[in-house]
Amino acid sequence: MHALVVGLLLAQAGESLTRHDFKGITVRAPKSWALSAEEETSKEWASGDERAQMAFSAFPVDPVRPARACVKQLIEAVQGAKGEGDAPGSTAAPAFSNTTIGGQPAAKKITTDFIAEKEEDKTDANKVTTTTIVGCNGKTKWLLTFSNRTADGAKSGALLKRVIDSITYAK
Which residue has the higher pLDDT, 7 or 142? Predict the structure, then answer.
């Protein structure tokens, strides 16, 4: 691999993260990314080169319920909210796969799409990968979306892993 490419991958993977607290959960986001939107329950960030963005939302669960049931309800809400698979000619949305994050049940899915609308502009340069993750401990539920240019997958993947590994629930 070319030395410059290796250097860029290491720089992205070594991106400093800064802590963000929500009611009941903490996540770390890239320190150099601009905070593009902020509310009490959610924040959105964008990379300086605008090739990646991330959003995180967290909410209390009311009434408190088993964590797995909460994750199942989140998946249903996310799939229903986007109307995935409902448009004429659309294909079924990718399924969520079960995982564990912060010691609690979670689920994730990865989708690929184009940022271009015209068919002739749907090239690899305009391909975007979005990772959607939901999680819950029965008291706090959350949603993370991380989108990046697909061509930047190696460096963005290392950063996303560090963000996911940073998610912790309050005691």
Answer: 142
Kindly report the CATH number assigned to the domain that includes residue 66.
3.40.1000.10
Provide the domain limits for residue 155: 3-169
For residue 72, the one-letter residue type is: K
Q: How far apart are CA 153 and CA 147, in angstroms?
A: 10
Q: Give the pLDDT confidence of 27-70 residue by residue, as tens digits.
A: 999 999 999 999 999 999 999 998 999 999 999 999 999 999 99
The C-alpha angle 127, 132, 14, rounded to 5 degrees, equals 75
* Cα–Cα distance measured from residue 104 to residue 106, given in angstroms and rounded to the nearest whole number: 7
The number of domains in the chain is 1
Compute the distance between CA of residue 31 and CA of residue 17 in angstroms, rounded to an integer.
Answer: 5
Give every CB contact of residue 99 below 8 A, 6+ residues apart in sequence: 106, 107, 108, 133
Using CA atoms, how far residue 147 sits from 16, 123, 143, 152, in Å, is 19, 17, 13, 10
Q: What confidence tier does 92 reach under pLDDT thresholds 50, 70, 90?
A: low
